[in-house]
Amino acid sequence: MSKTSNLFDCVLFDLDGTLLDTSYDFSYALNLLCEQHQLTPPSYDRVRNTVSQGGAAVTALAFNPNDTDAFEQHRQAFLALYKQHIHLHTQIFPGLLAGLVHLAKVNMPWGIVTNKPQGLTEHLLEHFSFPSAPKTVICGDTLAVRKPHPEPMLLAASECGVDPKRCLYLGDHPRDIEAGINAGMQTGAVLFGYMPPEKMTNLDQADYVFRTPFDITQFLTKKANPLL
Predict the structure, then answer these.
(1) Which residues cross the membrane (predicted)?
(2) Model confidence pTM above 0.85
């Protein structure tokens, strides 16, 4: 599973497709919007494979992005519906909760670095109670730059009080691996997320590869060491 035995003192997660399975609520919101416009909604699988590209890409599965003004209205309507139903089906990926419990037991800081806007991120997270609270939540609009730029990653490490080299960043998109590498962190590629494995173009650059959430839990319970 790994090509290095380095330990770490902090675990950082991407949000959508890594920590939380948000795909059903994205699909549900788009279905509602399509229903309003009497359109046949795209399949759940198409939505799931697009979630990591953001709200505009999901909206474009059903509405023409070339019609700029109308498309922006559709995008805003989609985001409003998504926010309204943001926690209806979303859950921690099955098999991952035990890993979070372990991090709480060993008092290891963990956090979230996502490109999701702060308003949506905070609204989503307020519906979840984790075994220990994240020490940092860095969103797509927290800074002027976002992943794969290293600054959000470095800010997360700073807020956790850990050297970036001692951080493990887990994500399901090539930009997550790139962001972790840019920040000098250890990286874990998540293959159960929203990016088809064949599109993880920098998979060979990741330090670890995880095919299931349970793989992450097993890895954390064996590798994670509390701060001294």
Answers:
(1) none
(2) yes
